[in-house]
Amino acid sequence: MNKLNYTPKDFKSNQALRWCPGCGDYALINSLQKAMAELAVPPHQTVVVSGIGCSSRLPYYIETYGMHTIHGRAAAIATGVKVGNPKLSVWQISGDGDALAIGGNHFIHAIRRNVDLNMILLNNRVYGLTKGQYSPTSPRGYISVSSPFGTVEDPFRPAELVFGARGNFFARCVDVDSAPSVEVLCAAAQHKGAAVVEVLQNCVIFNDGSQKLVSTKEGRANHALYLKQGEPMRFGPNLEFGIIQDGFNIKPAKIGENNITPDDVLIHDAYNPDNTLQLKLAMLDGTNGPIALGVIRAVEAPTYDAAIHQQIADQKTGKPKSLNDIMLENEVWEVK
User: Fold this and answer.
1) Is 40 left (phi over 0), alpha (psi -120 to 50) or beta?
2) 149 contact partners, CB below 8 Å, separation of at least 6
3) Structural domains in the chain?
4) Beta-carbon count within 10 A of 153 CB
5) Where are the alpha helices (DSSP H) in the chain?
6) What is the pLDDT of residues 51-106, one digit of tens each?
7) How far is C-alpha 243 from the chain's CA centre?
């Protein structure tokens, strides 16, 4: 029996949450349950698929169908679920190690194919479950149990990877920033196609402070650029800064200084098919400007699952081909 109105409690299982005290997963699951209640998709029409890692325990704690699957294979299995039953709302939960290391191939191809999945990437820049090895998003020089003298690799930047895979939806939020997190999770679920949400998350045990620029209210007031469709891109405690054009690039500037006026501030457009400005926004990392939060890109495009089922339907309505027709419809060589 479906309810007309859901509450977050409807999406909470009877299992006790088992994460380290202070883990960002606690905040994220609360935001996800609030988003699911807002979206009002019945629990029996919702599936949560995870791989392996701390965040991948999440399906046990959501009162929906769930699958705790194989390391790095969450995107592949979620794709199978969605193609098998396109009516389901499918959420994929992965950490930066699960999605971008062993699962990197599945991750980029699910995005390239534009499978209608809600792909939540919890990025704490470390392997937590296996006790603190560096991950594909750990910064160069990061010291860990697997890099005691510091890493000698440059990290993946998830946004750049998503855009490079021709992604049509990318958003970002902070684990402890509840209301904006709920907003972007709802936007991801309502988007038709592969929707990636990068959650900037703190691992209090193995990488505490990795998101320190935006992990506090004060930090977000100074360093977070909250994007709103059709609105000027302003930030700062009093919105005294804005993002302006700088040749072929963008940069932050203080309004009122150096002849910068409010009219110089760029307007955010997540719906623009040209991703040039969107990618530049996503690359702001706190050292070259603020950290962009919210929906950065949201462009509609044909989805893989819908196309597969349309192809099947088209074949059913046409005249069945004989085996001989199928064998001769492509290139044929005659051997004499």
Assistant:
1) left
2) 143
3) 8-231+268-305 (3.40.50.970), 234-267 (no CATH)
4) 14
5) 24-39, 74-84, 96-97, 104-113, 158-164, 178-190, 217-223, 276-282, 304-317, 323-328
6) 999 999 999 999 999 999 999 999 999 999 999 999 999 999 999 999 999 999 99
7) 23
